[in-house]
Amino acid sequence: MNPILAFLSGSSLLWSGLFFGVVFGVLLHRGGVSDYNVIVKQFLFRDFTVLKVMFTAVVVGGVGVFLLHGQELANYHIKPATMLAVVSGAVLFGIGMVVYGYCPGTGVAAIATGRLDALVGFFGMLVGAAAYALSYDWIAANILPVADLGKKRLPELASAPEWVWYVGLVGLAAAVFALIARVERKRGSR
Amino acid sequence: MTNYRWNPYLVGALIGLLSLFTFTLADKPIGISTGIAQAAGACAMPVLGAEGVAQNSYWAKKAAPAWNYGSLFVVGSFLGALGSSLVSRSFKVGSVSEVWSERFGPSVAKRLGAAFLGGAVLIFGARLADGCTSGHGISGSLQLALSGWTFFIVMFASGIVTAFLLFGRNTKA
Q: Could you tell me if residue A146 is inside a domain?
């Protein structure tokens, strides 16, 4: 079930990390999501770039990884659903993302476009990460074990075959995109 | 100002394709915040000492400061965005964006203070949840991970509430 994938290893793996990162950085910038205004306006529903980028990435990547996994060309890397930690982390993340104006990746990209607020926020991120590391023992003992459902995937929650979930994913994305298009058309004609 | 931007659906599709390459060739999902935690460990060394960082169970187990795939991915993201902004001539030094100044005024100190605090809260949340917009939001969701979708939905809801509380009034509709 878990084939050892060793297409890249050693120093070529390191170089691939740098290279894939470069591609990711170019795409974040060209997608417009390294712009403070674009990110904050998404949360105010005045701009839908972030949702467009993320949902398309999830659909294309999702269907692709599903097919590759079927051919034993890709492993799943599922993070544990430690529900208390994921939910409270996501709440903090949403607050931080609006106040900072970027997420970790787009913040790094925004520094590279000359944004000093992104750079100062990056120093904030270093402090926040250090604070987490220093409180990790307590969190690992008291927060992470609460409502820990393990490395669950959505298809394990219901007995429908896997491909049905991907059809659902594509359908969900199509519905979201159609809704966005409708809102944008309405606003454009105002 | 927006002429450097590509169609967001095209960009999203390319990020999706990129994850096919990272999954298959490198056996890694796309992710950023672990790399930043590694950088924090590196920066903590002068304060806590290399020993102190090495003995911290989080840095030791989850984000050892080192040049590896994940930390180089973050460096690459910086370089890619830098190259892209220079080539497209959209590189511009500044710190107060319109949405912020329309609501909170042009004060640079205010904006930078908020960015610092926001960044700290953001990454603390990302570490607590064990992922960020890329690790959970994109990579987790595309694998239909329960953790990824939970994060995606809760993060968005929290961001919407925060955005409307902070920016809901005094901005151009």
A: yes
CB hemisphere CA count around A7 (13 angstroms): 13
Which residue in chain B has the smallest CA separation from A152? B146
Which residues of chain B from 82 to 111 reach within 8 Å of chain A, CB to CB?
Answer: 82-85, 88, 90-100, 111
Q: What is the pLDDT of residues B24-65, one digit of tens each?
A: 999 999 999 999 999 999 999 999 999 999 999 999 999 999
Q: Do B99 and A96 touch (CB under 8 A)?
A: no
Q: Which domain, by its residues, includes A87?
A: 79-152
**Domain contains A108:** yes
Burial class (CB in 10 A: 0-12, 13-18, 19+), B4: middle
0.90 exceeded by the pTM? yes
Query: CB distance A20–B91 less than 8 Å?
Result: no
Question: A-chain residues within 8 Å CB-CB of B112?
Answer: 116-117, 120
Can you tell me the ipTM of this complex? 0.95
Express each pLDDT in B3-24 by its tens digit: 899 999 999 999 999 999 999 9
Determine the distance in angstroms separating the CA of B64 from the nearest CA of chain A, rounded to an integer.
11
Q: What share of chain B is helix, strand, coil (3-state, %, to 5)?
A: 75, 0, 25
Question: Does A133 map to a domain?
Answer: yes
Cβ–Cβ under 8 Å, residues B136 and B148: yes
How many domains, in total, are found in chain A? 1
Residue corresponding to tokens 């994060």 = B151
In this prediction, the residues of chain A whose per-residue pLDDT falls under 70 are 1-6, 189-190
